[in-house]
Specification:
The chain has 842 residues and is an alpha+beta fold. The chain has five domains: 1-157, Dna Ligase, domain 1, CATH 3.30.1490; 158-292, ATP-grasp fold, B domain (D-amino Acid Aminotransferase, Chain A, domain 1, 2-Layer Sandwich); 307-467 and 637-697, no CATH class; 473-589 and 619-624, no CATH class; 720-839, Glucose Oxidase, domain 1, CATH 3.50.30.10. The strands form seven sheets. The chain has an eight-stranded mixed beta sheet, covered by helices on one side. A six-stranded antiparallel beta sheet has the order 11-10-9-8-14-15. It has a five-stranded antiparallel beta sheet with strand order 2-3-7-5-6. Helix 12 (483-498) runs antiparallel to helix 15. 43% of the residues are buried.
């Protein structure tokens, strides 16, 4: 190996600082991690000794000779008196390990290097990782300058038998009187790389007592070699054994409390354990720590008699409902629902007087019927089914959608901002009811027809037509055009057009997404190319939002639509622009070609009765398949306008100091808003409404930590929950509905909503409560899909099949059981998800 490349400079000031000698001025140049370690070392905390190379020590990705001399001198000091000494080399960038951003796992880390040459190579590798694509993307997503000053830490490596992370506050609940510890055998790289699920313990900080613990099977550990590290199997007798004893847990908790008091804030601490002694190798503020609030709900009691389920329209309300939608929005749904059911049954209230109820802020579809009602429905069922299926398509295409479009266009053309507050509120209510009426036209006709015709075709094909080696039944329903596919193709075509202008392309790729949005909205001065190309791009993008920006992430209108916040769309656009996204036009053409070839092959082989039966079933299935996705994509047509109206009322209330900001309107109850609106129209000043909002937000956060039962009441026999039976998971295996075939292993990326879209990386497995057409941009990146709710005809299933990636839907609590970064295996043929990739079935 050649020696390190060293530039020869005659004079270089001191650029390398041992932990023991760092001053306040040095700390500012050492980055978040380096400064933190030096402070703890000087305070006598158990930090392995080391030094920091400040950012301006590097020139042209190399190191001047006199700086290298300072490095070698410090290396020699660290080797005394032991002689041979392994080192760890890590980054310490400006903004890294701060309260705003952690950059956890984004920079390179090199462990277990010995010689000067190995250390030098590791230093340059770590320093240059600051210019990597993943660091740049993370910086832009967090609004941080991507040209980071990167310092490098060289530190004695502890020969750890175990290691892990200690949070001095509960990062899930925000409770400050609890700590959370993760622990694994060996070095911590197996956890960082998602190769092993560590022990997880929740601890009472006051006395160190363990509140809860999860001890999974640990099959892989990172171990030291003569040089470098590698992953090895954990010995059989250690796999299911807790890594830390109760005494060690108490000692680590005590050390965490000491560090938290030293920094005067909750801390995220990396630790190692060697020969019974803990060492601290990193400590940073906990980012995104939720405010402490009430515990997650445990009682699930219906407000009235009957049975309630988390299905039907509730699948588009997977998350807890905000107060305004849970009261005003739910009222609109129930009114529209009752009108539709009255049309089918011939009388009102046949199924339930209040079909959508809430329990712990979660929506449930409630069915409350007496014996006579059940008997009447059974007797009339043929007639009811005939009414539902007759004109199923026309109910949507000729009535539901046109009526919905009409009311949206009417109010879009009105100068509604000059109307009274009551009129604006009533208009938003009318649009919402029209949206649900249109949706009911789908669920009462197109969607059940699609389900039944696809099921009938699949049964016929699998039993009478399919031979070994033939394509799956889903092949015959792929490659059609629908609104989500057209939206993706339009975005790709915009990227293709943009690539023809080099300056514009460079600006859009390298500018923070929020800055582009601010410039689009005129909220900041021009900071990029003020050219005809930019003006044309802006017009094209706005046309795109006008055509497709109404897609909703869920029915709760407190959530932005892409028209409100186009950041997720712009991230997908940048992916296409940089050439990393697959061409959707080619993908659709390939799916269409496979479908046509399969159709021709079946027609060639079967010309008799089987052929006629095949043609009859496939013709009907293919008729409904595109309509289903078109309908779901258009449910949100009025949502941008509804949100504008409600936020206008929010601005009026903010101007009168009733609430602090316009967005707070979504945290009011229906009765509160109606009274405030009436007060404003009467010239009265509404009373203050902000007092309950923090408590309501805390309750929603607590509800999000719970897993709502799929059915209420929870029917228990001898303590066994019947409703949960299908979701009973064995070990680290989740079972759901197999909706798109294939088997993939990869890193999970758990998404709550569009605010998390920027975290998605190419090849990640998307894990969400449910996906809607607005989630389609993420499918370009995903290698598989896993959801809490849904089935074969849910959006995620259909799009996954279009993209040719595995999907398992309806897992119940996947978003609670799976953590982002964990390696999981998705088997879309068997309907199983293996949370620890090493635990997958043979």
């Amino acid at each position: 190996m050649d020696g390190p490349r060293i530039q020869d400079h005659k004079k270089t000031t001191r650029k390398v600082h041992p932990f023991s000698e760092m001053t306040a001025e040095n700390h500012s140049r050492a980055g978040g991690k380096g400064g933190s370690l030096a402070k703890m070392y000087q305070a006598g905390l158990p930090v392995p000794d080391g030094f920091v190379i400040q950012p301006d020590a590097f020139e042209d990705d190399d190191m001047p000779s006199e700086v290298w001399e300072q490095v070698t001198a410090n290396l020699q000091n660290l080797r005394k008196p032991e002689g041979e000494q392994p080192f760890a080399v890590r980054s310490s960038a400006s903004g890294e390990d701060s309260a705003e951003a952690s950059f956890a796992g984004e920079f390179e880390t090199v462990l277990n290097v010995f010689s000067d040459e190995e250390v030098h190579e590791a230093i340059l590798k770590v320093y240059n990782s600051g210019q990597s694509e993943r660091v740049r993307a993370y910086s832009m997503a967090r609004g941080i300058d991507s040209r980071l000053d990167v310092a490098v830490i060289v530190q004695k490596l502890v020969e750890a038998e175990s290691s892990g992370v200690l949070f001095t506050a509960n990062p899930v609940t925000g409770e400050r009187d609890q700590a959370m510890i993760t622990a694994t055998w060996g070095l911590g790289e197996a956890v960082v790389g998602g190769l092993v699920t560590p022990d997880t313990l929740t601890v009472n900080k006051n006395d160190g007592q363990i509140v809860s613990k999860e001890i999974p099977e640990k099959k892989v550990m990172t171990v030291r070699l003569k040089s470098g590290t590698r992953e090895e199997p954990v010995p059989d007798d250690m796999r299911n054994v807790p890594v830390l004893s109760e005494v060690q847990v108490k000692e680590l908790n005590r050390l965490g409390v000491q560090i938290e008091e030293f920094f005067q804030m909750p801390m995220d601490i990396e630790w190692t354990l060697h020969e019974g002694r803990f060492s601290i190798v990193q400590a940073r503020p906990i980012t995104s720590l939720p405010e402490p609030g009430p515990p997650a709900p445990t009682e699930w009691k219906l407000p009235s008699r009957g049975v309630a389920m988390r299905n039907n329209i509730v699948e588009l309300m997977a998350a807890p409902l905000t107060p305004l939608f849970g009261s005003l929005g739910r009222e609109c749904i129930n009114r529209s629902w009752d009108r539709q059911m009255t049309e089918f049954f011939g009388k009102s209230g046949m199924i339930s007087s209040e079909p959508i109820v809430t329990v712990n802020s979660y929506a449930y579809y409630s069915v409350s019927m007496g014996v006579l009602q059940i008997a009447e429905i059974l007797l009339k069922s043929p007639w009811i089914m005939n009414r539902m299926m007759r004109g199923a398509v026309e109910r949507w295409t000729d009535r539901g959608l046109p009526d919905y479009r009409s009311i949206v266009e009417k109010w879009s053309q009105e100068d509604w901002r000059q109307r009274s507050s009551t009129e604006v509120l009533d208009a938003s209510r009318d649009i919402m009811e029209s949206a649900i009426t249109a949706y009911m036209a789908l669920v009462s006709g197109v969607i059940p027809a699609a389900w039944m015709t696809e099921a009938l075709f699949t049964f016929t094909y699998n039993r009478l037509i399919k031979r070994r080696g033939d394509p799956d039944a889903s092949t015959f329903l792929m490659g059609f055009d629908n609104t989500p596919i057209r939206a993706e193709k339009s975005l790709y075509e915009l990227a293709e057009w943009t690539r023809g202008y080099e300056t514009l392309t460079d600006y859009l790729v390298n500018t923070r997404t929020q800055d582009i949005i601010n410039r689009l909205n005129g909220r900041q001065p021009s900071s990029g190319p003020d050219t005809d190309e930019w003006a044309e791009w802006k017009n094209r993008f706005r046309r795109y939002l006008k055509g497709y920006g109404h897609a909703i992430y869920n029915l709760d209108y407190s959530n932005d639509t892409p028209a409100d916040d186009p950041a997720p769309l712009l991230e997908s656009f940048k992916l296409f622009l940089s050439g990393r996204g697959a061409n959707p036009l080619t993908r659709q053409q390939d799916a269409e070609r496979r479908r046509i070839q399969a159709m021709e092959e079946v027609s060639r082989r079967h010309r008799g009765l089987r052929g006629k039966l095949f043609n009859w079933t496939i013709t009907r299935a293919q008729r409904f398949a595109p309509l289903r996705e078109d309908g779901l994509a258009d449910v949100g047509l009025g949502y941008p306008l509804i949100r504008q109206m409600l936020l206008e009322l929010g601005r009026r209330l903010t101007a009168r100091e009733a609430i602090e900001r316009p967005e707070d309107i979504f945290w009011l109850e229906k009765d509160e808003l109606e009274k405030a609106v009436d007060d404003m129209d009467r010239g009265k000043i509404p009373g203050p409404l902000s007092g309950n909002i923090p408590e309501r937000k805390a309750q929603i956060r607590a509800a999000k930590r719970a897993t709502p039962p799929p059915m209420l009441p929870q029917m228990k026999i001898l303590g066994f929950d019947i409703a949960q039976r299908k979701k009973k998971h064995a070990g680290r295996v989740l079972e759901g509905v197999a909706t798109s075939a294939g088997r993939v292993t990869g890193a999970a990326r758990v998404m709550e909503g569009p605010e998390d879209f920027h975290k998605m990386r190419h090849g990640d497995i998307l894990v969400a409560s449910i996906t809607t057409p607005a989630w389609t941009p993420l499918f370009v990146l995903a290698s598989a899909i896993v959801t809490d709710v849904g089935g074969p005809l849910s959006h995620g299933s259909i799009v996954a099949r279009e993209y040719g990636i595995p999907a398992v839907l309806g897992c119940g609590d996947a978003t609670k059981r799976i953590a982002s970064g964990q390696m999981i295996t998705v088997d879309g043929s068997e309907g199983k998800v293996y949370i620890d990739a090493s635990a997958q079935a043979d």
